[in-house]
Specification:
Elements: E1 2-8, E2 20-27, H1 30-40, E3 47-50, E4 56-58, E5 62-69, E6 74-79, E7 83-89, H2 94-104, H3 121-125, E8 128-129, E9 132-133, E10 138-145, E11 151-155, E12 176-186, H4 196-204, H5 214-235, E13 243-247, E14 253-255, H6 256-265, E15 271-273, E16 278-281, H7 283-289, E17 296-297, E18 300-302, E19 309-312, H8 318-336, E20 345-347
Parallel strand pairs: 2-5, 3-5, 4-20
Antiparallel strand pairs: 1-2, 6-7, 7-12, 8-9, 10-11, 10-12, 13-19, 14-16, 15-16, 17-18, 18-19
Helix pairs in contact: 2-5, 4-5
Length: 351
Amino acid sequence: MKIQPFYPVKDRHSFHIDVQARYWVDYDSVEELRSVLNDAADFGLPILPVGGGNNLLFVNDYPGILLHSCLRERTVLEENDDAVLIKVGAGHNWDELVAWCVAQGWGGMQNLSGIPGEVGATPVQNIGAYGVEAKDIIEAVEVLDRTDLSQQTIAAADCDFGYRRSRFKTDWKDRYIVTHVHYRLSKKPVFQVNYGAVSARLATQGGLKAGDDTQSVKDNLQLIRRTILAIRDEKLPDPAKVGNAGSFFMNPEVGKPQYLKLKSDYPDMPAWQLSDDRYKLSAAWLIDSCGWKGRRLDDAGVWPSQPLVLVNYGQAAGEDILSLARQIIDDVSQKFSVTLRPEVIILGQEA
């Protein structure tokens, strides 16, 4: 375990805002985590578990303890001819795990290739991309209960997974810390490649390989992974080069009457029907339609290839990114009467 006071977190989160935490703690076991939480109770400081820091915007210095998991083990719990169940530590790099599983010929994660961060965030955020969400492969989540420091295993069905959310973001936010995640993957996967950009690019490469033998499955998984990584590279900035947290906003949902009015006013507006009376709108389209794509306010800007992504071009403060986000929210609200909500977790007194 390593405890570091007044720790600069600029290189520990993807926006690269120049702030510091009162304490940064790296822990290597559940017992060390339990010890830290037990000792921290005496100080009365706020505590926040962090992974790769890819979904955080710091507006100010963090006045408490940032807890970072170094639990990176991966274990096969069950395996048969059709599927495999694996247990992975919360501190394991997510995309490295995806690459490893694809190399084994285990399907389910491939559409989530290239998402930055660590395993512990996958059930919290219910990460998703290209038609797949983490909830589709999560079977259970191991946690440490902050109220009594006990270990528990929670079934996925009890996590209330939804679009970019789970109970770990709502009523469980200050109760549980994720230590391990169980994923069930298929050795005979049904490939999800109907997402527009993915299917179009695959078509230019001749499509998926026919056959359900082991080698064909591995080849197709690798092809899908390469395809998605290429699409992401074209649309999204590398956080190591340009500070960002990926999609800053969630796609908003509206009722049918509002959808019909917007569709009448804006026939080209993309939307997805969720139920008989709910529709999901494209936040990127809304932002682009307000003229924000590629705009820059000093070192805070909107990425030219993807208006969902707000970026730090070098010297932006957290307040600058937040101010930009607020202006975008106001413009979208005024033009469309739709409220955008951040996907990014904003930390600081001004948030």
